Amino acid sequence: MNWRLGRLLVFEMRMLHERAQVFSLAWVVMPDHLHWLIELGPQPLAPLMQRLKSRSAIAINGAAGRNGKRLWQKGFHDHALRNDEDLKGLARYIVANPMRAGLVRRIGDYPLWDAVWL
């Protein structure tokens, strides 16, 4: 995985957070997908994801010298959480994805993740 390109996606996620479009609780950028636990801001999920995918594709394709190449699949998978779901447990599950995928032995060895509780 190209960590530099992954950081471009992280930058776009943080920009949405800093602009109060979303509150990021936990995330991990995997080699071929993203897990992102968020609390929505004023914008609905679909336009928010479109903005993230568009801006990150422009940045990543530009840095990689790939003009116009499709980076993201169409659509996205989402799951609305109930009030009684364990957010910290879900955050731990999300950030542990690189270990379950065999990419690292410890989550601290993987550079593309964060969680507000960890």
Polypeptide structure, described:
The protein has 118 residues and is an alpha+beta fold. The protein has four helices and three strands. Strands 2-1-3 form a three-stranded antiparallel beta sheet, with helices on both faces. Helix 1 packs antiparallel against helix 2. The mean pLDDT is 92.
Task: Describe the SSE topology.
Layout (H helix, E strand, L loop, with lengths): L2 H16 L3 E8 L4 E7 L4 H20 L22 H9 L1 H4 L12 E3 L3
Antiparallel strand pairs: 1-2, 1-3
Helix pairs in contact: 1-2
Q: Which strand order does the major sheet show?
A: 2-1-3
Number of strands: 3
Order of helices and strands: HEEHHHE
Largest beta-sheet details: 3 strands, antiparallel
Extract low-pLDDT stretches.
Answer: none
Shape: globular
Gist of the model:
The two termini are 23 Å apart. Helix 1 packs antiparallel against helix 2.
